[in-house]
Amino acid sequence: MRIAICDDNQAMRTQIKDYISLYFEQKHLEYSISVFSSGEELTTEIRIFDLAFLDIEMGKIGGIESGYWLKEQNPNIVLFIITAFDNYLDDAFDLNVFRYLQKPIQKNRLYKSLDAALERNRKISFKSDNEIITISAQDIVCAFAQSGKTVIISDKKTYYTNYTLNFWKENLYESFFSQPHNSYLVNLNYAIRFGKNFVTLKYGNNQTVTADISQRKYYQFQREFFKVMERRK
Predict the structure, then answer these.
(1) Where in the chain is the domain with CATH 3.40.50.2300?
(2) Domain 123-231 superfamily per CATH
């Protein structure tokens, strides 16, 4: 796991680095950490990162601008925005930030967020058109039943599989997946709006897909949706 920390406060950089180092050592996971004191320093670094912690207010290039630059290098990067202010929340959502962490950093909350981030990076393999496909669970936007098969829409491509939707329900067990209808599984990280009987997901190059919400599952889906939204704060 290649990790970037960018904050103009030295004490904050050190604290985050120490917390993250301890976390990965306790998990016995390989990692590397690069530390930057400004957005300008970060955005001149030609390197791909898997995960980044960004202070939102820094000189000329703040955390939001740095986040967009990092996503150009790696669209799958997991971004954490760190700030003492709430007025950037909408900008963070537009960037599809994974978590929104407030200062001072709480170690337990940070570790729960890292658990969820590692969960997002889990790979899943399946057969589609006689080809074995392996993608990250986080890249699956939704799955739905169609004519005895299951259609998998990922962030980049659509796949058709012979597996039942129950197979996908058992294998897409991450907490950000929800089943709003017996015929659908959706990744709530892609959800942008929902009504009484539908949820809209946005992915790829501003593409959208709509999934049904059954009346029976509406309130459960609503709770799951807001739970995922709350994690981003």
Answers:
(1) 2-120
(2) LytTr DNA-binding domain (2.40.50.1020)
The residues with which 65 forms a beta bridge, in sequence order, are none
Prediction pTM value: 0.57
Q: Which residues contact 186 (CB under 8 A, 6 or more apart)?
A: 141, 142, 177, 178, 179, 180, 199, 201, 211
CA 165 vs. chain centroid, Å, equals 23
- Cis before residue 104, ω within 30 degrees of 0? yes
- Rounded CA separation 58/69 (Å): 15
Instruction: Please say whether the structural domain 2-120 has been given the CATH code 2.60.40.4070.
Output: no
DSSP state of 210: E
Which of these, 216, 205, 218, 23, lies nearest to 113 by C-alpha position?
Answer: 23
Report pLDDT digits (tens) over 23-75.
Answer: 999 988 889 999 999 999 999 987 888 899 999 888 889 888 999 999 888 87
For residue 105, what are the contacts with CB-CB under 8 A and spacing of at least 6?
12, 15, 16, 19, 82
